[in-house]
Design a protein that fits this description.
By secondary structure, this protein is of the alpha+beta class. The protein has a two-stranded antiparallel sheet. A hairpin with a 2-residue loop joins β1 and β2. The longest helix is centred in the last third of the chain and has 83 residues. The model has no long low-confidence stretch (mean pLDDT 87).
Length: 199
Amino acid sequence: MAKIKHTKNELKAQRDGLKRFRRYLPTLQLKKQQLQMEMRQLDQRIEEKAAEERRLRDDLASWVKLYSEPIDLATYLHVHEVKTSHGNIAGVTIPVLNEVVFERLTPDLYETPPWIDDGLDAASKLLRLRIEWGILQEQHRLLAEELRVTSQRVNLFEKVKIPEARENIRVIRIFLGDMQTSEVARGKIAKKKSVGVDT
């Protein structure tokens, strides 16, 4: 605990600090709750994307043997651009996926197998899911970091700053009370001495 002055000014400063901590604590607690709720929703969305990818891969399993043919899908399909913007959750700036733009070349119908269009559709869906999943993971990382910091601040206020300010106020009040009592006692002694000198 830091050394405090036992003065009325310090008492006022400690009371002001306590009032400030009590005023900010509910805001921090609310932010913490909001972040926790957003994290739960984000965890659910990440799981939904993972389940969607599993379903898509299961659907592909029936005809994935066709991919053993020597065809490079990357020559016909690649990600041209990932368009994102920024969102705000509880004061945290997060990336938001707007659109994934694919550059897709039309395969030659005579030189490629008939399943290539379906294969390109499936590959684009998988790529988009992977990109969405990556953006959600980044959102999760940013919110988790903010939740960690906010939780630390809530704990600091609840467990350190507010009890410390209360204790400082108590100590200063006792000291000032003792000083006032001793001043009154000295005053009485001085009065008795001055009355005793007069007589």
